[in-house]
Amino acid sequence: MTLSVESITSWSDADVADVAALVRLLGHQVDDAAMRARLERLTPEAGHRTWLVRGADGRATAVAGAQLTWTYASDEPTAQLLLLVVDGTARRLGTGSTLIGTFETWAAEQGVRRLSAVNAAATDSAHRFYQKRGYHETGLRYTKIV
User: Fold this and answer.
1) Rounded to whole angstroms, how far apart are CA atoms 57 and 137?
2) Residue 66 CB: number of other CB atoms within 10 A?
3) At what angle do helices 32-41 and 13-24 cross, to 10 degrees?
4) Which of 19, 72, 89, 140 yields a CA-CA distance of 20 to 30 A from 95?
5) Would you write out the chain's pLDDT as a tens digit for each of its 146 residues?
6) What H or E segment, with its residue span, contains residue 16?
7) Cβ distance 98 to 5 under 8 Å?
8) Cα–Cα distance measured from residue 79 to residue 49, given in angstroms and rounded to the nearest whole number
9) Rounded CA gap, 142 and 146, in Å?
10) What is the pTM of this model?
11) Does residue 62 contact residue 55 with C-beta atoms inside 8 Å?
């Protein structure tokens, strides 16, 4: 089975609803209006890219999002995978691996050699997923809600 990944910049109501549902699988609370506002900020012009994989019915079954960023520690850009969510119906079919490959190809096209992935799903299976693809833990990230 060949999966098709779509780079998306224009958001239909159905796409927004699908992405919001996928993000909720990670435990985040978001409604469609808030999701649309977020997606409309995360543009290629702002250094972001978003990809969808659709099921046979045309609905999004997986989403990945990334950004190109510059850091104080390097003269080269870094590509960060900020989001990768696959619906249960599309798991174990190579969907996540296909999205990782799309992210890595995009990053290479941007001249990036350093890739990072933000793992919002702190599960053993998510950790194994990234490790199996050559990513390794590089430290902790601290967050404070104010």
Assistant:
1) 37
2) 29
3) 100
4) 140
5) 578 999 999 999 999 999 999 999 988 899 999 999 999 999 999 999 999 999 999 999 999 999 999 988 889 999 999 999 999 898 889 999 999 999 999 999 999 989 988 765 556 677 777 778 877 777 766 777 78
6) helix 13-24
7) yes
8) 10
9) 13
10) 0.88
11) no
